[in-house]
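Thread title: Can someone regenerate the structure for this chain?

I was given the following input by a collaborator and told the matching C-alpha cells would be attached. They weren't. Posting the sequence so someone can regenerate them.
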Amino acid sequence: MNKILNVSSSPHLRHPDTTQGIMLDVLIALVPAAIFGCVIFGWRSALVLAVCMISSFVFEYLWNVILKKPQSAFDLSALVTGLLLGMNLPRSIPIWMAIVGCFVAIIIVKQFFGGIGHNFANPAITARIVLMVSFPAAMTNYIEPLSVDAVSSATPLASLYGDATSAVTLKDAFFGIQGGCIGETSAFLLIIGGLYLILRRVINPVIPVCFIGTVALASLIAGHNVGLAVCSGGLMLGAIFMATDYTTSPTTNWGKAIFGVGCGLITFIIRYFGALPEGVSYSILLMNILVPYINRITARKPFGYVKAKEGK
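Best answer:
Regenerated them for you:
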C-alpha cells in the first residue's frame, strides 16, 4: 500500500490552545471591569461597548467577504479589539465616533497589514490615539461615577500634575469610583482579570510587572502619589491587556522586560513633561514600533551556533 506523507518544517508540536480559546479567555477577563464600568457610568456605557464589539465584528466579516478571504471574524479577535477600544472610550462619546474608531482598528491597523498576527501595532491602542488626536474634546469629556448627565471632569491623574480640584482617594481609584473611560477605572477588577490570564497562561507577567513597576518607581522618585499613579489613567488596562498582545510584543523574557520598562518610562515622561497627564496609549504604540529591534537584540543563539570567520 502506497502512503503519502506530508512533511512540514519544525517544530512538530500539538497544543490544545486555539486563537478562539485564547480570545475567549481575554473576553472573560475583561467582562468584570466592563460590567463595572456600565454600572457606575450608566446604560450608555453598555451601548458604547456593544456598538464597538458589533462594529468590529461586522467590519472584519465584510472585509473577508469582499476580498474572498477565509473568514476570521469568528475567532473572537475582532470582538476583543472592539471591547478593548470601547473600554478605552468615555461614556459620552458620540456613537459614530466609536464606529470610526472600530474601522481604524480593524480595517486600517489590522487588515491592511495582513490580519491577525501581522499588524505592527495594537489595533485598539492605535484607534484610541487616532480618536484622541482627531476629537480631543469628545475623548476627554469624562463623567463622574453614578452621574446621570455627562459632564467634563478631571481624572485622578490631574491631581498629580497640577490640578488640585481633583481629590480622588487611593481607595476610590483602586476600586474604580473615579472619572475616566468606561473600562479603565477599576484597578482591582483589571488585576483580577490579569491574574486569571496569568493562571490560564494566556499572558506572561513580565510586561505588566515591568510596566507598572517602572511607573511606580519613577513616580516615587518624583515625589508623586504612587498609588494614584498606578491605579489611574488606564495604566492597568494598558499594561495587562494591551501591552501583552502577542503580535506586537517581544518574544523573549528579556525583550518583554525591555518592552515593559520602556513603556513605563515613556508613560511617566509624557505624564510629567507632556501637555496631557496621560501617556499609556502613546507609550505602547511607540514601543510596538520598536519590537522588531528588541527581538533582534534579545534573540537567543541556536544551540551549537558558531559565528562564521571573516573571509570564509
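The chain is about 60% helix and 0% strand.
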